[in-house]
Amino acid sequence: MRSTFRWMACAAVAPFVTLMPAYGQSAEAIARTCVLCHGPDAKGVGHVLALAGQAKENLVRQLEDFKADRRQGTIMNRIAKSYTEEQIRQIADHLASRK
Ligand code: HEC
Fold first, then answer.
1. Which pLDDT tens digit goes with each residue over 46-76?
2. What is the distance in A from the centroid of ligand 1 to the CA of 1?
3. How much distance in Å is there from the Cα of 48 to the middle of ligand 1?
């Protein structure tokens, strides 16, 4: 009985614990600024490409390339430089999980 209770408590708390780091650093809030240019739901507008649903690794690589000036953009270099690598991974994680 006691172990059942403990298991249930873990199951109830686990989702909050796994979500908390993302909200603490607010990857979701950052990702909301991306949609200003990348369109509602980050699905792309005109020539600004879709972000939502892209593979996480692909998003991380693009953003790190912009950050290190390996890739030249009009605006993304400045944007990527304002985030840490940890934040970039969290933003990419968040965007990749959206469809
Ligand atoms: C001010 C408008 C603007 C904002 C805000 C913006 N982007 Fe961009 N993004 C662009 C433009 C324009 C490009 C095309 C490259 C360039 O000209 O810099 C681009 C390109 C990209 C690319 C490369 C896409 C590909 O497949 O080649 C990625 C990844 C990206 N942006 C991610 C992000 C993320 C993540 C955010 C939020 C942290 C963001 N962008 C915010 C305008 C914006």
1. 666 777 778 899 999 999 999 999 999 999 9
2. 53
3. 7
